[in-house]
Amino acid sequence: MKVQEYLSLENRFKMLTKSKPExxxxxxxxxxxxxxxxxxxxxxxxARDFKKPTNIQKQTHxxxxxxxxxxxxEV
Length: 75
Prior knowledge:
By secondary structure, this protein is an alpha+beta fold. The chain has a domain at about 5-45. It contains three helices and two strands. Strands 1-2 form a two-stranded antiparallel sheet. Helix 2 (about 10-20) crosses helix 3.
């Protein structure tokens, strides 16, 4: 389903196509382009291989007295 078809289900967008058809077409075209870009980005993220860090060491600052432990990640 194209974005224009989906948005046309709402009266506010239907009225926009009747009152300002040129602006509505620009809006729908931009919304379609944004949706396609977002879809491509989600496909890219889904295809990535996320690996967890293999070696995590706790590191402290000399003045912390061991209270504020911050993990040090080595990949």
